[in-house]
């Protein structure tokens, strides 16, 4: 069984890069995820169904299509990508930052849905009571709503991380498969399956992917339960 842990430098790089990309994808998406979830849960406006459809579109579209759209938009010749590169020096295409962007987009619907369900479960009477005592809406959200939806936020973050760890189609389409720069675990596994004698490496990385995903899901459940018990005690 020692061969399972006998990873080559390139394999370790793929593991480290995947964790880095998934972490940044999760963290960068979180503020937008909370905002969009709040809008979808509480908002009453024309076009809400359209916004909901756009948010969940990455779950329906083939990942390759999402990656191609990102390439058209955030590539060096794309309208957004060229603007960011020229004025801010930010480049996404064929960089690990682009992999984080692709993973964040693909995982965003899962994060939003988990947080939205938590917001919809909040008793609005608690918020109304705080409002009658003179608290402004921002203070009510920070002191009442946010603590109540914390389990949903944690669940959304972990699900987003796990999804980002396994993202392949959008990532390889947008940033290619460059060892040490954009080659994440799924890309490395795909590479191993395309070369003779790569079965051992593919199996090692597959087992590592399963282990990380399971740990993330278990951590999500444990943290959500602990937060829920703490809130009940308070």
Descriptive account of the structure:
The chain is mainly alpha-helical. The protein has one domain (2-230): Orthogonal Bundle (MetI-like fold), CATH 1.10.3720. Helices cover 78% and strands 0% of the residues. The model has no long low-confidence stretch (mean pLDDT 86).
Distance between the termini: 47 Å
Total domains = 1
CA-based shape = globular
**Number of helices, where a helix is a run of at least 4 consecutive DSSP H or I residues:** 11
> Largest sheet, described in full?
none
What is the second-level CATH architecture?
A: Orthogonal Bundle
Radius of gyration: 20 Å
What is the CATH third-level topology name?
MetI-like fold
- For CATH, the homologous superfamily is named as MetI-like
Total strands: the figure is 0
Q: Return residue spans where pLDDT drops below 50 for at least 5 consecutive residues.
A: none
Proportion in helices:
over 70%
CATH class: Mainly Alpha
Mean pLDDT: 86
Q: Could you say which structural class the secondary elements and strand pairing correspond to?
A: mainly alpha
Output the helix-strand order.
HHHHHHHHHHH
Strand content: under 5%
Topology (SSEs and partners):
Layout (H helix, E strand, L loop, with lengths): L8 H34 L5 H13 L2 H12 L4 H10 L7 H25 L3 H9 L4 H12 L1 H16 L3 H7 L9 H9 L5 H35 L1
In short:
The protein is mostly helical.
Give structural attributes.
234 residues; MetI-like fold; mainly alpha; 11 helices
């Amino acid at each position: 069984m020692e061969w399972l842990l006998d990873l080559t430098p390139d394999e370790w790089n793929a593991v480290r890069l995947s964790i880095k990309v998934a972490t940044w994808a999760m963290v960068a998406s979180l503020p937008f995820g909370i905002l969009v979830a709040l809008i979808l849960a509480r908002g009453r406006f024309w076009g809400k169904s359209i916004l909901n459809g756009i948010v969940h579109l990455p779950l329906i579209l083939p990942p390759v299509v999402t990656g191609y759209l990102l390439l058209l938009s955030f590539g060096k010749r794309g309208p957004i990508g060229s603007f960011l590169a020229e004025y801010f020096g930010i480049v996404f295409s064929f960089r690990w930052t682009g992999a984080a962007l692709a993973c964040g987009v693909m995982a965003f619907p899962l994060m939003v849905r988990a947080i939205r369900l938590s917001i919809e479960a909040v008793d609005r009477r608690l918020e109304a009571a705080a409002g009658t005592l003179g608290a402004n809406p921002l203070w009510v959200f920070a002191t009442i709503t946010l603590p109540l939806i914390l389990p949903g936020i944690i669940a959304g973050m972990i699900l987003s991380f796990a999804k980002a760890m396994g993202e392949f189609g959008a990532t390889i389409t947008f940033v290619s498969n460059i060892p040490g720069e954009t080659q994440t675990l799924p890309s490395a596994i795909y590479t191993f399956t395309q070369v003779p004698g790569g079965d051992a490496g593919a199996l090692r990385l597959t087992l590592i992917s399963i282990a990380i995903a399971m740990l993330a899901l278990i951590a999500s459940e444990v943290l959500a339960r602990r937060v829920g018990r703490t809130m009940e005690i308070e």
